[in-house]
Amino acid sequence: MDRPLVMTFRVCLATAVLCLLIAAGRADAEPRFLSKQYNRCSSCHYSATGGGLLTPYGRSLSGQELSTTRRVATPSAAEGTVSGEEAFLYDALGQALGPVQLGISIRPSYLHYESGTFSDTRSPLMNADIAGAYRGHGWTAYGEAGRMPAIGSEDAKLYSREHWVSYESQGGIGVKAGRYMPAYGVLFSDHTSLNRNDLGFDKYDQVYGLEVSHTSERSLLQVSVSPGRAESIVNDDGGSSFNTTGRLQVDFGPKVVVVGSGLYRDSNSLQARHGATGGALGLAPWRRLTIWTEGDALIRGDGGGTSFVFSNETAYEAYRGIWLRVSPQTRSTTDSFAGAVRWNLGVDLLPRTHIHVNLDFYHDKTDGSPEAVKTFLAQLHLYL
Amino acid sequence: MTGRHWFKTRPLTRYACATLAISLVALAAHAQSPARAWTVAAGDVRVTCPMTVGGSFDAKSSALAGTLAVDPSSTVLSGELSVELKTLDTGISLRNQHMIEDYLEVGKGDGFERATLSNIDVSFDGPKPFTALLRLHGVTQAVTGRATVSAHGSSVRVDASFPLHISDYAIAAPRYLGVGVKNEVTVRVVFTANTAS
After folding, report:
1. What's the CATH code, domain A3-383?
2. What is this structure's pTM?
3. Does the beta-carbon distance from A60 to B57 stay under 8 Å?
């Protein structure tokens, strides 16, 4: 095939994949890579909070270090970019995008759950997102667009999970404004973890706000203030109210991390005033083992009581690109809210650049419920 | 009874004389060569590399070797300690490859394969400042840090750390796809040495 024909084919392929996108998704935050001496999300992600579009470094790492099958020789690329298999759409666009980085995340899934005699099976396309970023001279402009799946009576719709602009000085002082997930605790890749959705950091809980941060060799401080949850502001559903979060991470070495967090959300028509405070410890005692443990107190106003949430994730890389996970989680009971115990067993397979297969089993038991809910989730996460 | 016969017939006396003679020879030898040698039995080198995006990683090696001669009349140790740079491990192979091949350039041969610490001037009581010469990447520079030397029977344990600036050793600024290592890294050397006269 001559070169113009190759380019035409590549452009057609890129256009076809873009057109096939129903909506948007995001690369997971992977705190288990602490065992590989990555104690900051910002090595691989544009967001210091983790998740979302991978930087060129993160793309390269996916191919060269995290996958079971190593990527072979890569064509040389311009400074600061990747090429070949690691690049956007397998380098279908070459250097046409210049300094702009793009990524597409598609996640077809299989979900089966049962409780007592009831069971159900679904195969949802959990998300499909496109994300783009430009970074230069300390500035980062970031945006995602994608598909929010149908939830309850609401149809699937197009939306942007995150869009923000940030600046970070040479001294490590940063400012970010826009729509983003506020930093709190450990951002496990599973948004249903009790330390995520229970505390109001589920997948649609981004805020519109302003974040101020300071990063150094040993610490990362992020403080966010916001008029409310982004979806509540957009839909004017009465759920928006002042909220603020703070997160301080202190690295006691490349494999020992301590995190302290706090949040406050004022009352609105959907929720009582509430807050939370917690601490987390990340350890990588051996080369392939990462242990994250987080404990939080969720303090509800108006007599809602205080729940204590505990989450642990222990991940072990049994073989290059094959991770085994176990995650016990609990939430204590209050007068108004039932306690819960969850066991999550998972396997993560990273067979090749940007291909990630999750196999997860959940056993959830809620206080007062006669039956446990058992869930099996299989996800193919393609990050192109 | 002749003296010779007296010596032959008294074994206890003969033994005592032999012991005395050996002791005198040993004392004379000590007086002529008071230095003692420390031979590294086990050691670790850990280089903490702060990253430009925040956080840090360690490059570690246990391939520390060397012998130092300790002269009680001086605080300067003769001899040298060295570490094979190709054994440094950061936990992932891509980072190792970049560090060893692209920045430390161990393939260039002599002067690039090892980092060597010599002319170590250290105090022997408690944590104290020390100075030394570090040869790295074909360049020799003075370094200053803190060291704790503690004796345990016939062995000695040394725990020393010092900062160094990568640019002082003509090493290119490590950068890869927007992520890099800051110019100042910290080296920590911990070793146990067997002492011998």
Report:
1. 2.40.160.10
2. 0.84
3. no
